[in-house]
Design a protein that fits this description.
The chain has one domain. It has 128 residues and is an all-alpha fold. The longest helix is centred in the N-terminal third of the chain and has 18 residues. 66% of the residues lie in helices and 0% in strands.
């Protein structure tokens, strides 16, 4: 199970060559979300000894969240055009900082996932 997310994103990470997509499509928001996608994949694939265990299913949802943001903003942009070798190296060198930023940014979706899990177990999301 631990290898599911990295395998899911492996094609994107291995296709780290840009093909001349317009600068308008590769904007700061798309780049930041691609960094999050890669940071999540790297965290799942190469956990540091001092990092707590992760919920891989939750990480798959968060990866889909960040990929969906890119798709929603730029439907014609292929992830392999956005994710370059330089971006991959940046994420690998700055994973702790970027992963933390991404988790802070995704806090609202994490809260929604928690409420959905509560509802799926037959409980009220407000605890009543």
């Amino acid at each position: 199970m631990r290898r599911t997310l990295p395998l899911m994103i492996a094609a994107v990470m291995s296709a780290a060559v840009t093909t001349g997509v317009s600068a308008q499509t590769i904007n700061d928001q798309n780049r930041a979300d691609a960094i999050c996608l890669l940071a999540i994949a790297d965290r799942v694939d190469r956990p540091a000894a001092d990092e707590p265990p992760i919920d891989e299913q939750g990480m798959q949802i968060l990866a889909g969240y960040f990929a969906g943001r890119i798709e929603g903003r730029s439907p014609s942009l292929a992830l392999d055009d956005l994710i370059t070798a330089d971006l991959l190296r940046f994420v690998q060198a700055n994973r702790a900082t970027e992963y933390g930023r991404c988790m802070d940014e995704a806090q609202s979706i994490v809260e929604v996932m928690g409420k959905l899990a509560t509802i799926s177990h037959g409980e009220s999301p407000d605890g009543n």
